[in-house]
Amino acid sequence: xxxxxxxxxxxxxxxxxxxxxxxxxxxxxxxxxxxxxxxxxxxxxxxxxxxxxxxxx
Length: 57
Hints:
Blueprint: H1 2-36, H2 39-42, H3 46-56
Helix pairs in contact: 1-3
């Protein structure tokens, strides 16, 4: 019983950190893309960014 609660709390912690990592990666990609090429966000590749965001979050 004790082991089960420990593993479940570990799983919750790992999913929390994974979601945090996903958000960080998403922001990094957007910021990096925006600084390297601002037209990317508003041009034809904006749909790719939107798809990436919906995939992540």
